[in-house]
Amino acid sequence: MTVRLPADLLPGPNDLWFLPLGGCGEIGMNLNLYGHDSRWLMVDCGVTFYNPLQPTASPITAEVQAADPTFIAKRKELLAGIIITHAHEDHIGALPFLWPRFGCPVYCTPFAAEILRRKIANSGLSQDMPIIEIPPGGTCNIGPFSINWLNITHSIPEPQALLISTAAGKVFHTADWKIDKAPMTGRPFKPQVFKRLAGQDITAMVCDSTNALKPGFSESETACYQGLYQVISAEKQRVVVSGFSSNIGRLISLGHIARRTGRYLALFGRAMENMVGAARACGYWPDDIPLIEPSHVGYLPANEVLVVATGSQGESRAALSRLAQHRHPHLLLEENDLVLFSAILIPGNEMLVSRLIAQLNMLKVRTLQSADSAELIHVSGHPNQGELDLLYRYVQPAIAVPVHGEAAHIQANAGVARAAGVPQQFTGQNGDLFVLAPQPRVWPQAVTAGRIAVEH
Ligand SMILES: [Zn+2]
Ligand SMILES: [Zn+2]
């Protein structure tokens, strides 16, 4: 008997399906669906930023884009809920714009909820979104899905992995993670949480592939703190650090460094202020790290200034670009000031960043990119091969489903899973239907996947 893909794509009571509409075969705009017993569960709803140097099959050229949600929007009465695993833009960014097409409850931790409420307030979008706050490490039931939220480590407060249990099987969805035994904020990585899953017959582990091409282990946020301290403590002039505004741990590190080196810390950029506001509201900003008003920075002696600025990827409207063009209202950089890039250079942004560096060098401002630095001034929030291997060995799933990566990352992650003894590895892309139970198989391109523009 030939097995056919059910035409209505409705999962039965014995089915457990995984259907990524975004973030599988690419990095960005994560949108995952799980199907069981006539219901769907969405995990994450993020954006991606258009990059003309990274061609995709999509003709959309809007600056901000999301996964095309048509498949699930057409079945919204079957969508039991939406889980947001953490507050990075590639996981949360599209939700305020797409939510009216879903209309169901949203589940997330308090920090992600705070970010979501700020996004909704800033954009003037629908205020009716029911946001249900789940404490980190908590549990909840959403339709036929029972969810255990599991504290993991990443580069933003309250990152959560998920154990999704159904009558047909269990999925361990890692979301974004790394093993950080000494994060600057939040709890250290606890192996026991994941070792416990080994006895639970995990059907599939859906896993972050971002750094699956890199051998070994990622470095801890604390090691990055020490590297940044080494560089900044040797400086006599102004120091500007540019990085990702959501990395509260990194900002806390810079706060401690400012105090230890007799500098005042100021934040330049709305995204940065917004994130720190949310961190404060949720109790993640230590009381002993003062911030000074950006407008006061210009009056300070050069050796007392530590500025954190948005715009590490060369974004033309961000604070760092304005500093590089002497267009910032609060600070004129001078000869011998130092700009540190405490961030990776995201592929495709090379031209923008080299233009930014040329502008800074014209002002005789020195620059240091993380890739050229002898000291560690940036660490990634994603797992290298050593960490992937460990987590597969802890959890011992029957099937590995690598996601959150381009095809090469996904293949590399599958290779690590195979070597770690995971019996089956399913690789695919957006729109593929991964049948996890009862008879595991992949239906390529079961659903039309694509991109849509997000109006900002
Ligand atoms: Zn991500
Ligand atoms: Zn993330």
**Radius of gyration, Cα only, in angstroms?**
22 Å
Total tally of structural domains = 2
Largest sheet: 8 strands, mixed
Q: Which stretches of 5+ consecutive residues score pLDDT under 50?
A: none
Mean pLDDT: 95
Task: Describe this entry's structure for a reader.
By secondary structure, the chain is an alpha/beta fold. The protein has 2 domains: 16-216 and 381-453, Ribonuclease Z/Hydroxyacylglutathione hydrolase-like (Metallo-beta-lactamase, Chain A), CATH 3.60.15.10; 221-372, 3-Layer(aba) Sandwich (Rossmann fold). The protein is built from 12 helices and 25 strands. The protein has helices at residues 70-73, 89-92, 95-98, 110-123, 191-195, 221-233, 248-260, 270-281, 319-324, 350-362, 385-395, 407-419, and strands at 16-22, 24-25, 31-36, 39-45, 47-49, 64-67, 79-83, 106-108, 131-133, 139-142, 145-151, 160-166, 169-175, 204-208, 239-243, 264-268, 305-309, 338-342, 366-369, 399-403, 405-406, 424-425, 433-437, 441-443, 451-453. Strand 3 and strand 4 form a beta hairpin. The radius of gyration is 22 Å and the shape is globular. The termini are far apart. The mean pLDDT is 95.
Quickly describe the structure.
With 456 residues, the protein is of the alpha/beta class.
Secondary structure blueprint with pairings:
Layout: E1 16-22, E2 24-25, E3 31-36, E4 39-45, E5 47-49, E6 64-67, H1 70-73, E7 79-83, H2 89-92, H3 95-98, E8 106-108, H4 110-123, E9 131-133, E10 139-142, E11 145-151, E12 160-166, E13 169-175, H5 191-195, E14 204-208, H6 221-233, E15 239-243, H7 248-260, E16 264-268, H8 270-281, E17 305-309, H9 319-324, E18 338-342, H10 350-362, E19 366-369, H11 385-395, E20 399-403, E21 405-406, H12 407-419, E22 424-425, E23 433-437, E24 441-443, E25 451-453
Parallel strand pairs: 2-21, 4-7, 7-8, 8-9, 13-14, 14-20, 15-17, 15-18, 16-17, 18-19, 20-22
Antiparallel strand pairs: 1-3, 1-23, 3-4, 5-6, 6-25, 10-11, 11-12, 12-13, 23-24
